[in-house]
Amino acid sequence: MRRRASLVLLAVAVFCAALAPLLRWYAYPRLAKIPPNQYQEMVLEAKDATLLDYTAGMQPKKVDKVTIVQTLKGNVEASKEIEASAGKDVVVWDTLSYIMGPDGKMVSRIPERYVFDAHTQDPVHATGEMVDGDPVRREGIEFKWPFFTEPRDYLYFDAQTRSSSPIHYVGPRVFKGMDVYYFEQTVPWTKVPLPKKMPIEGIDPKTFEESTGTSLWYTVKAMFWVDPVTGAPVNAEQRIRQEMRGGIAAGAPDGRLTVFAGDVRIRPDYSAYTVDLVRSNRVKVLALHTYAPLGLTVGALAFLALALWLEARGRRRNARPTAEPAG
């Protein structure tokens, strides 16, 4: 009976030892991916900001708050269409940044379509990839870092400039009890397209720029606190400045007219929700990548040791001399 038990334990040990690398090197790369149907909403605020008042002589003024509502929706149908030709798991995010002034009225709205590899987060170039209706070809990441983010610089896409530049790893940080990586990117003053949707109806951005000689310029310092396991930012902050130059801005000091200047941050309730969501997903990723393979490996060693102990104990008992019967 003891020998049968040791054989069963040995079989279980072999099973666990075989399953551990299978989970880590086969299942994890295939199962750890961004779902194609993800939906997320985020509210950001810039308090005590400067905003151009289009209705009062095109003059910048201080406002209590500018609100940015960002929605992200996974486009499942578009993902399937692109996957058919790309030959890999693809995610398509349709996003919208809706900017509102303190009165709740629209300042601008900028849609995007972001196409990327569900596993690596590398961009996938396909028809429909765009920012505000303009076709783009992204290089580097946007919105999300890869699973198991490394402490190094990455190439990050800036939607305003339609271009990519390095985002620098600064060092480890602790954010609301989570160990995270902190990244910074500074985009220097760059001429950017005017938004296609503006507060004044009937203005065509291209015609406006050509007829008035007015151009829009932009700079930002972007800061991200990223969970290294999931690659998801748990916090973000952007110090943005936009200004018009030339044309209608010629009469302003230095020929520059501030369109927006503010420190954009995630609203506290959405920040708390994001942290909870990332913590939950972090456990799932670690379970597949680390906890389960490690547990199976330890289990395999334990079952093997127990099988060997039972086998050795049985052999010692069988090796004991049998007493001679009394004559």
* Major β-sheet profile: 12 strands, antiparallel
Helical run tally: 4
Task: Give the rounded overall mean pLDDT.
Answer: 90
Number of beta-strand segments:
12
C-alpha Rg (nearest Å): 29 Å
- β-sheet strand percentage: 35-45%
How are helices and strands ordered from N to C? HEEHEEEEEEEHEEEH
Distance between the termini: 33 Å
Which regions contain 5 or more consecutive residues with pLDDT less than 50? none
Q: Numbering strands along the chain, what is their spatial order in the largest sheet?
A: 6-5-4-3-2-1-12-11-10-9-8-7
Q: Quaternary arrangement of the chains shown?
A: single chain
- State the share of residues found in helices, binned by percent: 25-40%
Gross geometry: elongated
Helix-strand category: alpha+beta
Secondary-structure blueprint of this entry?
Elements: H1 2-31, E1 39-53, E2 59-74, H2 76-86, E3 90-100, E4 106-117, E5 130-131, E6 134-135, E7 154-158, E8 163-175, E9 178-192, H3 205-212, E10 215-226, E11 233-245, E12 256-266, H4 268-319
Antiparallel strand pairs: 1-2, 1-12, 2-3, 3-4, 4-5, 5-6, 7-8, 8-9, 9-10, 10-11, 11-12
Description:
The chain has 327 residues and is an alpha+beta fold. The protein is built from four helices and twelve strands; from the N terminus they run H-E-E-H-E-E-E-E-E-E-E-H-E-E-E-H. It has helices spanning 2-31, 76-86, 205-212, 268-319, and strands at 39-53, 59-74, 90-100, 106-117, 130-131, 134-135, 154-158, 163-175, 178-192, 215-226, 233-245, 256-266. The protein has a twelve-stranded antiparallel sheet. Helix 1 packs antiparallel against helix 4 (268-319). The two termini are 33 Å apart. 24% of the residues are buried. The model has no long low-confidence stretch (mean pLDDT 90).
